[in-house]
Design brief:
Elements lengths: L1 H18 L9 E6 L9 E7 L12 E8 L6 E9 L1 H7 L3 H19 L7
Length: 122
């Protein structure tokens, strides 16, 4: 699982370098992988770079790095912020070895948040 997470982080870093501007609005930049660890109810894991709402003044340069867990086909997700700051801060975070450990540490919590979510009936 660590290999898949490392690849997801590397792929997101490459995308963020090009697609995340230093300042202002941008669409969500993300990478997603299917969850390889069947101990968790999560079907997918996503790492994304987002921006604060534009209504928050003075945040034009701020970005969030968020970890997201999905349990498809449920429409519910579980999220956890794993980084915050400027574009350069996010790119630096995406290079840190500690990020892999942080993601591995947070996955059980994302799983727990979604474990009791009712699944849609087909």
């Amino acid at each position: 699982m660590e290999t898949e997470i490392r690849n997801m982080i590397a792929d997101l870093r490459r995308k963020a370098m090009v697609e995340v501007p230093e300042c202002g609005e941008f669409p969500i930049v993300y990478e997603r992988i299917p969850n390889p660890d069947k101990r968790f109810c999560l079907t997918d894991i996503m790492l994304k770079v987002t921006k604060p709402p534009k209504e928050l003044k003075g945040t034009e340069r701020e970005r969030y790095l968020e970890l997201v867990g999905y349990r498809r086909p449920s429409p519910y997700i579980s999220e956890s912020v794993v980084g915050f700051g400027s574009k350069q801060d996010i790119l630096k975070r995406l290079e840190e070895e500690a990020l892999v450990e942080k993601i591995m540490e947070r996955l059980p919590h994302l799983d727990e948040d979604l474990r009791d979510v009712p699944m849609p009936v087909e």
